[in-house]
Amino acid sequence: MRYRIGRLLQMIGLVIPLLGVSGNLARPDQINVWDSLSIAAIGIAVFTLGWLIQGPAST
Predict the structure, then answer these.
(1) Where does the pLDDT of residue 57 fall: very low under 50, low under 70, confident under 90, or very high at 90 and above?
(2) Does residue 59 lie within any of the structural domains?
């Protein structure tokens, strides 16, 4: 169960920075570069949390 939750968080962590970059490209007047970088940092944090939760694969 921890493995699946960790993998889900990793996938979410990979998608979040894409949303920040696409938001910056679509509406640069509302989402500037610093906002995009902040969103990317949140994505990195979510990915890292998923990586820590996942732990080593048990076989």
Answers:
(1) low
(2) no
What is d(CA 48, CA 12) in angstroms, rounded to the nearest whole number? 11
* Reported pTM: 0.85
Tell me the C-alpha distance between 48 and 28, whole Å: 28
Residue type, 27: R
pLDDT band at 58 (very low <50, low <70, confident <90, very high): low
Residue 30 belongs to domain spanning: 2-54
For residue 54, CA distances in Å to 2, 34, 49 come to 6, 30, 9
8 within some domain: yes
Q: Is residue 22 part of a domain?
A: yes
Q: Specify the amino acid at residue 20.
A: G
**What whole-number distance in Å separates Cα of residue 12 and Cα of residue 14?**
5
